[in-house]
Amino acid sequence: MTGSEGLNLIIGSLAVLVGVMMFWSLPLLQTRKKVNQLPYLSIIIPARNESGRISPLLQSLQNQSFQSFEVLVVDDHSTDHTATIAESFGAKVLQNKAVDSGSGKSMACWHGALHAKGRWLLFLDADTSLMNAESLICLLSFYQQKGAKGILSLQPYHTVHRLYENLSAIFNIIVIVGMNVYSFWGPRFKTAGSFGPCLLCNKEEYLFTGGHQKILGAVLDDLALGQAFMDKNLPVHCMGGKGIVSFRMYPEGIKSLVEGWCKSFAVGSKSTHPFVMLMTIIWISGSFMTTGALISSISANSLTAMILSSTLYLTYVLQTIQFARRCGNFSRYIFLFHPILFLFFSATFVYSLFQTYILRTVKWKGRNIDV
């Protein structure tokens, strides 16, 4: 075994251990059998050209055992049949009046909150869906258990339907890890904010913090809103959505997938704790190191090195599967080729940096958003 092969194996082994510390756990909600009286709820769904994706969410809301809520769909300048579909499910459709670049979703959420009748507000992205009939009551009862204070946000469980959608696996892992609170050290690090696709709060505190109006223009409204609550010393609880809420990301194709991740990753990385960021970099590098060690051992025709490097490579496969399956139903076999997933992530992240710090603008859903 050469020195370079040994170095690759050492760094790869270190990266596996760092990965364990980096993504120690992801807490999930547990269904409670008994709940106290729950207040009336307003469900606010900002929607821009979501005619192809909003129906599963609206159908899942109709299927809930808890029905004491209103559904407000805020149509954010859609050019398709989003409003018509929403009305066919009995939702009340509001028109977002905002026209400023980058303020669309935040202003839509604020507009919906001002028209809300409920004491509690649940913001859901149009591409989400509640996973069973008890999802809503489980979400609400947990918030009640936490004193109905601050924010309860869930990262939806990513459902994959087409092969290319597995390219989002590493992104999903990094999004969750980047919230800072899922490492071995847990709450010792301050959370980076909140998850945006599923976010529950009470209306009084929402208005007290300034809500989405305060963060108009923020590219990452979820992180900014969580920070706004923390600035007022209100708690922010971030949890995994498996069993409660799911989403399917970027079904339109790879172009949409790249645009979607590019608009947020470089900006979002600023909110990640430096130590968590260092662990993330080491873990990502480990994929390439284990691959390099395997290739080198095969080229050198060294049996010992091949056994060690193959074992380490497969360990990385299993670890990445474990992490990814916490986040979504990604195909297990795809992780046999984990270097491709990490390479795609790295290339997209570099492109996101270029858009954010050189071009100073990102594109999403036909809007150019200044960053």
TrEMBL record:
Q: Which CDD domains does the record cross-reference, listed alphabetically?
A: Glyco_tranf_GTA_type
A Pfam family: Glycos_transf_2
Q: In which pathway does it act?
A: Carotenoid biosynthesis; staphyloxanthin biosynthesis; staphyloxanthin from farnesyl diphosphate: step 4/5
* InterPro entries, A to Z: Glyco_trans_2-like (IPR001173), Nucleotide-diphossugar_trans (IPR029044)
Q: Which UniProt keywords are listed? A: Carotenoid biosynthesis, Cell membrane, Glycosyltransferase, Membrane, Transferase, Transmembrane, Transmembrane helix
Transcription regulation recorded as keyword: no
Q: Where in the cell is it found?
A: Cell membrane
Annotated transmembrane regions: 6-29, 163-185, 275-296, 302-321, 333-354
The UniProt record lists the Glycosyltransferase 2-like domain at 42-152
Reading the lineage from the top rank, the first entry is Bacteria
Whether Isomerase counts among this entry's keywords is no
For this chain, the family text in UniProt reads: Belongs to the glycosyltransferase 2 family. CrtQ subfamily.
Which purpose does this protein serve, as stated in its record? Catalyzes the glycosylation of 4,4'-diaponeurosporenoate, i.e. the esterification of glucose at the C1'' position with the carboxyl group of 4,4'-diaponeurosporenic acid, to form glycosyl-4,4'-diaponeurosporenoate. This is a step in the biosynthesis of staphyloxanthin, an orange pigment present in most staphylococci strains.
Q: What's the name of the protein?
A: 4,4'-diaponeurosporenoate glycosyltransferase
